């Protein structure tokens, strides 16, 4: 039996990561080698295992990261090493993606392969621009052609321009931005009316989407005037007129806004997905990663002495996650927490605890050290004087909270259950995009994300360079911003992810 690996030619879809097929996501998740194209959304790379070898195989115009012939041989070589290889291709592998050539090379080398179709930009980009490629009142067919014929064809074309022009169906042209003037002229030379509506959709289905509307006679000039660049899909036909009524994606409340999300890699996706659904162009740039604390002894002693505490205080969802990760390594029963009461700072922290069916005995209205102390001080039901309080939180955290609790007479053990370290990877290319293109908003969900973003990029310099505004989740994060001389444009109300999303939508107007 052969020990060869398998190569999977996977369609990455048109750009929106939500349009990747389930089969594609499954294969990326077990790839040992992942070779991806320029038009693949880089956020899909985070689906790959950390151990996967990532190879950029992008091709843009005459700039090929790896020449096609060498790439074909690379796929064969990796498979012959017995590896699971995913070749991730923008759109569909067999729609102007040279997937057929790659599959032929694999077949000739005796390498097992599988084709996983993807959603082609030829239908997806028009749909996200509000343009149906077929409609009973306009046409019953559509034709997809490439605007990039093989260079060695010279001035000749295999496209029957007369037949194409005479067809009543919609014409969809891929990769035709640089040649749009010639394409329009060929169609008009073959008697297609110069007033025929034309749309060009750039970076379709993503937060970067941009649409240009004209006619066959004006579109080339509009491209020049607007410095409209590839990659784009061109749609020619009466269906373009339906865009005014059906343009759903570009009317979303955050469309056209580029938003930076600085949460940890595992948390960023939840906020990023919410913002993307509202039309934002999201750059996930995690500035911190959560790791084990240096002081394990204090944590071990705290877990062994749980029965001695009257109160457990959690200040963040990370604190809850990490505490119970360690708790369940040593205990089989949630009742081993004992008869302690629980305080939670913030609704997200409370939600984590409630998911474990734990009652929240106290939650301050203000998510600060002073707010926690005030909640205890003003409580008619609870007093923490002479009571043992375990504070489970980050290794480096605001020292005010234990001091405030001690002023109320509590005996406080400040126990680190995690530490935050700088995140320096840029696996999805978001850092490069921020530095080159800037952003409209930068979001911060904790003081540590502020501090680490500043250490890595220089927050003040970044804001001045790009004119970005800052959204803070709450008072403690705002304090960290103000220490750097930055006043947030908006502080979320309420101080939660939901509050951040709602506040950003309101601020974006």
List the helices and strands and how they pair.
Elements: E1 7-11, H1 22-28, E2 33-36, E3 53-56, E4 59-60, E5 63-64, H2 68-80, E6 85-89, H3 99-108, E7 113-116, H4 121-128, E8 142-146, H5 161-166, E9 170-174, H6 180-189, E10 197-202, E11 210-215, H7 219-225, E12 232-236, H8 243-246, E13 258-261, H9 265-277, E14 281-284, E15 288-291, H10 296-304, E16 311-314, H11 317-330, E17 341-344, H12 347-354, H13 369-378, E18 388-394, H14 400-407, E19 411-422, H15 430-437, E20 441-444, H16 447-457, H17 459-466, E21 469-472, H18 475-483, E22 490-491, H19 497-508
Parallel strand pairs: 1-6, 1-7, 2-3, 2-6, 8-9, 13-14, 13-20, 16-17, 16-18, 18-19, 20-21, 21-22
Antiparallel strand pairs: 4-5, 9-12, 10-11, 10-12, 15-19
Helix pairs in contact: 2-3, 11-12, 13-14, 16-17, 16-18
Any overview of this molecule?
This protein is α/β, with parallel strands linked by helices and about 500 residues long. Helix 2 crosses helix 3. The N and C termini lie far apart (about 65 Å).
The strand count comes to 22
What is the rounded Rg? 28 Å
Q: What proportion of the residues is helical, as a percent range?
A: 25-40%
CATH names the topology of the largest domain as Rossmann fold
Uncertain runs: none
Q: Which outline best applies? A: elongated
Total discrete domains: 4
Terminal CA distance reads: 63 Å
In round numbers, the mean pLDDT is 91
Structural class: alpha/beta
Biggest sheet architecture: 5 strands, parallel
Order of adjacent strands in the largest pleated sheet: 3-2-6-1-7
Question: What would CATH call the class of the largest domain?
Answer: Alpha Beta
The total of helices stands at 19
How much of the sequence lies in strands comes to 15-25%
The CATH architecture assignment of the largest domain turns out to be 3-Layer(aba) Sandwich
């Amino acid at each position: 039996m052969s020990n060869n690996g398998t190569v999977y030619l996977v369609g990455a879809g048109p750009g929106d990561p939500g349009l990747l097929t389930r089969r594609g996501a499954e294969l990326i998740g077990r790839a040992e080698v992942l070779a991806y194209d320029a038009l693949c959304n880089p956020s899909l790379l985070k689906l790959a295992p950390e151990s996967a070898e990532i190879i950029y195989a992008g091709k843009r115009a005459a700039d090929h990261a790896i020449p096609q012939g060498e790439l074909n041989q690379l796929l064969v070589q990796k498979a012959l090493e017995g590896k699971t290889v995913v070749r991730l291709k923008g759109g569909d592998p067999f729609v102007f993606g040279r997937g057929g050539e790659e599959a032929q090379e694999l077949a000739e080398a005796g390498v097992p392969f599988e084709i996983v179709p993807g959603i082609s930009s030829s239908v997806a980009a028009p749909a996200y621009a509000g343009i149906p490629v077929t409609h009973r009142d306009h046409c019953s067919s559509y034709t997809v052609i490439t605007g990039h014929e093989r260079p060695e064809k010279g001035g000749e074309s295999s496209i029957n321009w007369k037949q194409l022009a005479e067809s009543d169906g919609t014409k969809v042209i891929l990769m035709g931005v640089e040649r749009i003037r010639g394409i329009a002229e060929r169609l008009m030379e073959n008697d297609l009316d110069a007033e025929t509506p034309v749309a060009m959709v750039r970076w379709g289905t993503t937060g970067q989407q941009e649409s240009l509307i004209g006619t066959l006679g004006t579109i080339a000039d509009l491209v020049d005037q607007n410095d409209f660049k590839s990659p784009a899909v061109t749609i020619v036909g009466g269906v373009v007129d339906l865009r005014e009524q059906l343009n759903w994606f570009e009317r979303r409340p955050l469309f056209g806004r580029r938003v930076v999300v600085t949460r940890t890699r595992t948390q960023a996706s939840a906020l990023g997905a919410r913002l993307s659904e509202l039309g934002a162009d999201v750059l996930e740039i995690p500035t911190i990663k959560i790791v084990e604390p240096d002081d394990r002894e204090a944590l071990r002693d705290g877990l062994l002495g749980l029965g001695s505490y009257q109160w457990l205080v959690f200040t963040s969802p990370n604190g809850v996650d990490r505490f119970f990760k360690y708790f369940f390594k040593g205990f089989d029963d949630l009742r081993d927490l004992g008869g302690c009461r629980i305080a939670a700072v913030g609704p997200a922290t409370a939600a984590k605890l409630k998911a474990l069916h734990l009652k929240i005995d106290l939650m301050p209205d203000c998510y600060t050290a002073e707010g926690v102390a005030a909640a205890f001080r003003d409580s008619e039901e609870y007093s923490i004087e002479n009571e043992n309080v375990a504070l489970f939180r980050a290794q480096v955290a605001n020292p005010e909270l234990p001091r405030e609790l001690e002023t109320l007479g509590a005996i406080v053990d400040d126990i680190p259950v995690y530490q935050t370290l700088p995140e320096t990877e840029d696996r999805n290319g978001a850092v490069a995009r921020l530095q080159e293109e800037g952003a409209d908003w930068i979001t911060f969900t904790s003081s540590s994300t502020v501090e680490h973003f500043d250490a890595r990029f220089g927050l003040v310099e970044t804001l001045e360079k790009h004119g970005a505004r800052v959204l803070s989740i709450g008072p403690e994060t705002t304090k960290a911003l103000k220490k750097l001389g930055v006043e947030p444009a908006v502080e979320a109300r309420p101080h939660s992810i939901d509050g951040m999303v709602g506040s950003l939508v309101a601020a974006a107007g």
